[in-house]
Amino acid sequence: MTGLSTILIVVGLFLAGGVYSFSKQKMPRGVIVLLAGASAMCLLAGVLRIQGIWD
Length: 55
Known about the structure:
Elements: H1 2-24, H2 29-51
Helix pairs in contact: 1-2
C-alpha cells in the first residue's frame, strides 16, 4: 500500500504549502489552523502507513 501512502504524503505537503502561502497573504488565522491540521493528519497517516503501524 505504498501508493496510498505516497498520495497522503503528497497531499500533506501540498496543504503545508497552502499554509505557507496563506500566512504570507495574511489570511484569517482559523483558515491557517484548519489547513495546518489537515496537513499534519495527512502527513502522519502517510508515514504511519509506510511504517506499517496503520494498515
